[in-house]
Amino acid sequence: MSNDKLQLFENKAIRTAWDEEKEEWYFSIVDVVAVLTDSPNPNNYWKVLKKRLKDEGNQLVTSCNQLKLKSHKDGKRYLTDVATTEQLLRIIQSIPSPKAEPFKLWLAEVGQ
Question: Where is the Bro-N domain (predicted)?
Answer without folding.
Answer: 13-112
